[in-house]
Design brief:
Blueprint (H helix, E strand, L loop, with lengths): L2 H18 L8 H24 L11 H22 L4
Amino acid sequence: MNIIAWIVLGLIAGAIGKAIYPGDQGGGILSTIVLGVVGAFLGGTLGTFLQTGTLSLTASSLSIPGVFVAVLGAILAIFLWGLLTRRSA
């Protein structure tokens, strides 16, 4: 998959993931793209692990199921990022 497709997939998945996940995540378009690309890798890797039982670093493709998996991965990435950056009260 070429870099333009990665950026488009990242933008779509990150924007949908931020819209679905409750709360304010902040960040601009660049953080949305990065979040979506990370989500594509997380979702693709977890999907491959659940299907085959082997752990390999893969990413989802620019298709309807691929975007769905990338959005789920982006939501997971938002959650994990929130855990890492949470300030203690």
